[in-house]
Amino acid sequence: MNDSSTLSNGMQIATFGAGCFWGVEHVFLQQPGVLDAVSGYSGGSLKNPTYEQVCEGDSGHAEVVQVTFDPSKITYDQLLAVFFKLHDPTQVNRQGPDVGDQYRSAIFYHSEAQKAAAEALIKSLAQKKVFSRPIATTLEPMEKFYKAEEYHQRWYQRKGTQPYCHTLREDFPLSSPPAKVPAGVGGKK
Predict the structure, then answer these.
(1) What pLDDT score was predicted for residue 184?
(2) Which of 72, 84, 104, 186 to pair with 175, CA 20 to 30 A apart?
(3) Could you tell me the CATH number of the domain that includes residue 107?
(4) Would the pTM of this model clear 0.90, i.e. be above it?
C-alpha cells in the first residue's frame, strides 16, 4: 500500500466512518490542528455514488469524514481518540437511530502506520474493557473517497444547530486535544 496520508504541504489526511457524517464532521472541525473535514463516501463498489444510492444500502459505501490535519498540532493518535470518543464503536452497521452498513464504524487507513496505530488502540481498548461489548469498528484500506453533495457539507454550521447524537464522551480513558466545542456539545453519550 502506498502511503497516501501525507500531502505535499506536509499536512496529513485521515478518514473515519462513525455514523451520520454531519455530526462526525462537526466534532472533528472543532479540534485544534484540524484544517478541514469533508463529508463523503468510501468503502463501496459503486463509482461516484449519490446520497440516495448510499442510503439504499446496495453500494457498500460508508458515510465518512475525511480529515485534513496538521500533525505538528494534532496527532493521528489524538484523532483516533476523538473518533472513539464521539460514537459507539460496538454497534454493528448503525449509530443511534441510523441503521444500515452505510453507518458502520470504520477507519479507512491511508498508510500502514495508520493501520498499525488503529489496530494497537483497538487492542488496548479491548484489553482494558473500555466498552461493555466487543468493538465492531472495521479497518479498511482507503481506496477512493467521494465527496458528498454540497448540501451535506458543514450541515450543523449552516443550520445553526448542534449534533444530537455525536458528542465527546467525558469518561473516555484516552486524551484528545481540548476541543473548541460550542456550548451544548461535549456531554456524555
Answers:
(1) 36
(2) 104
(3) 3.30.1060.10
(4) no
